[in-house]
Amino acid sequence: MASAAQSMEEIKARIEMIPVDEAKREIAEGVRIIDVREQNEWDESHLEGAIHIPQAEVAERIDGVAPDTSERLILQCRTDNRSARVADLLGELGYENAVVVEGGIVAWEAAGYPLVYAKGLTPEQRNRYSRHTLLPEVGVEGQVALLNAKVLLLGAGGLGSPTALYLAAAGVGTIGIVDDDVVDASNLQRQVIHTTDRVGVAKTASARVAIESLNPDVKVIEHNTRLDASNILELIEPYDVIVDGADNFPTRYLLNDATVRLRKPVVSASILGFEGQISTFIPYEGPCYRCLYPTPPPPELAPSCGANGVLGVMAGLMGLLQANEVVKLAVGIGDTLSGRLLLYDSLGTTFTELKVRRDPACPICGEDAPEIPVEEMGKFPDYELFCGAPAREPSPVA
Amino acid sequence: MPSATVKIPPVLRSQTGGESQVPAEGSTVGDILTSLVDAYPDTKGQLFSEDGELNRYVNVYLNDEDVRVLDGLETAIDDGDTVVILPAMAGGR
Predict the structure, then answer these.
(1) In 3D, which of A309, A278, A290 has the Cα closest to residue A249?
(2) Predicted ipTM?
(3) Distance between CA atoms of A365 and A313, rounded to whole angstroms?
(4) Chain A from 123 to 162: CB within 8 A of any B CB
(5) Does pLDDT of B89 surpass 90?
(6) How far A250 CA lies from chain B's nearest CA (Å)?
(7) How far apart are CA B70 and CA B54, in angstroms?
(8) Using beta carbons and an 8 Å cutoff, which residues of B are at the interface with A?
(9) A158 vs B93: CB contact, 8 Å cut-off?
(10) Total-model pTM
């Protein structure tokens, strides 16, 4: 039996191949060119004036495009294998004058001939994000959405570090980072955005260095501060998605109350020991953080107030699950974790999924919930007794 | 008597001798938790308030559903069910 390569050789031996300069000359003379690549490839770039018919549709559509089987047709794909198969097929259908551009659009571009590019991406970006744009679900449009997205990370720590790196790599155009801590050597076991030579540097500044060297497309906004009721609304307002990797309950409830007010989606994860939790809260479409956890636990059940270890790899996994949620929200694809809480146990390597429902009696997003005064956001009666005012003391996990 | 598996969160494991899941018998979620408390008395103060109510900061799920949207502690148990005890966690750093 002939191998695929041999059979392609045989096909190319019985069709006519023309070099790109010949193709360019014929196209200028009015010969029609048909691009047989897939939609997402066409969207990324194509020859001006080309007709787009994906390979699988050629047999049924060619008659509508070129009813005269004697017409000269130039076929082009990425290199020339698909177009060779199409030329062979057209030959069988009676088209005697269908030729193939040798080397396809790759050779055309390499020769410096002009292409029509998708709007919104520079040539460098088309290359950098090609593995995204090749996904039909993302495409150029999805990549442009990522480049236009503004994402705020609460914390550049165990969760925020991997989240920030992957969002930067994905081309999220604006990444804001809230953190008032400096890099400590004990962070480096899991906070992979920081480095040994940046110990002592502000985490926001350290994260900026890493992000900018990874991807110059990303604008980093440093918020070297701690969220509180006086600054939170102003701080989160410019952002599309908030990623919660906060290390204390007061900040988590404060963030919830403010994001419900401003209707901002929150991707929320937490980590402890070998285990992590993650959910996505989309105000009024799904439950909020208070629907899931109406009341914060007391200190003995709230280890963020005390000393605890955390497996660095597990923190990384949870941070990447957060990044995964952000990308889907920004592009508008897939199913988010809204209404679901995902638990990960790294010792057993098991995931558990729990349902989370909107609480009609939720004091923040419930049906009859009154709008609370700004200074009341994030508050609980006697909460200070539990955890101290917004946990200032660095936890050993921090 | 139906038997269920109770999943213990990390913060309660010092009260269960380090076990992350323990078997318990009972015909309702409340019975299961009571039998857990009988086996591991140190868990009682963290699960239940002094008047015997489940603490508000403890979420309990029967399989994947919050018992608050079922029949609470009265929710019936089938043999082989999983009861998940889940307090909020805040660690992120």
Answers:
(1) A290
(2) 0.92
(3) 34
(4) 154-155, 157-160
(5) no
(6) 9
(7) 15
(8) 7, 9-12, 20, 46, 56-59, 61, 64-66, 68-69, 84, 86-93
(9) yes
(10) 0.75
Asked if A284 and A375 touch (Cβ cutoff 8 Å), the reply is: no
B62 CA to chain A: closest CA distance, Å?
Answer: 9
Question: Comparing C-alpha atoms, which of A364, A250, A343, A245 is closest to residue A299?
Answer: A250
- The three-class DSSP label of residue B25 is strand
- CB nearest B91 (choices: A298, A356, A397): A397
Distance from CA of A330 to the nearest CA of B (A): 23
Dihedral of alpha carbons B56, B58, B60, B65, sign: positive
Is the Cβ–Cβ distance between A160 and B92 less than 8 Å? yes
Phi/psi of residue A81, each to 5°?
Answer: -75, -50
Contact check, Cβ <8 Å, A249/B90 = yes
Tell me the chain B residues in contact with residue A157 when contact means C-beta distances shorter than 8 Å: 92-93
* pLDDT confidence of residue A5: 62
Q: Which of B7, B86, B93 sits opposite A247 (nearest CB)?
A: B93
From residue A295, give the alpha-carbon distance in Å to each of A135, A168, A259, A379: 42, 34, 18, 10
Which of A118-122, A361-365, B57-61 is predicted least confidently?
A118-122
- Show the tokens assigned to B46: 């963290």
Distance from CA of A169 to the nearest CA of B (A): 21
Determine the Cα–Cα distance for residues A155 and A171; give it in Å rounded to an integer. 19
| pLDDT interval class at A384 (50, 70, 90) | very low
**Residues contacting residue B8 through CB under 8 Å, at least 6 positions apart:** B16, B19, B20, B21, B22, B85
- Please answer yes or no on whether A272 and B61 come within 8 Å at the CB atom: no
Which of A292, A352, A382 should be substituted to probe chain B, the one whose Cβ sees the most B Cβ atoms within 10 Å? Answer: A352
The phi and psi torsions of A154 (rounded to 5 degrees) equal -90, 100
A289 touches A265 (CB < 8 A): no
Q: How far is A390 from chain B (nearest CA, A)?
A: 12
Q: How far apart are CA A199 and CA A36, in angstroms?
A: 54
Would you say A286 and A292 are in contact if contact means Cβ atoms under 8 Å apart? no
Pick the residue from chain B with its C-alpha nearest to A387.
Answer: B90
Of A214, A129, A163, the residue nearest A325 (C-alpha): A163
Residue with tokens 């920081």: A194
Q: Phi/psi at A319 (nearest 5 deg)?
A: -65, -40
Phi, psi of B64 (to 5 degrees): -105, 10
Tokens (6 digits) for B4: 């269920």
As a 3-state breakdown, chain B gives helix, strand, coil percent values, each rounded to 5, of 30, 30, 40
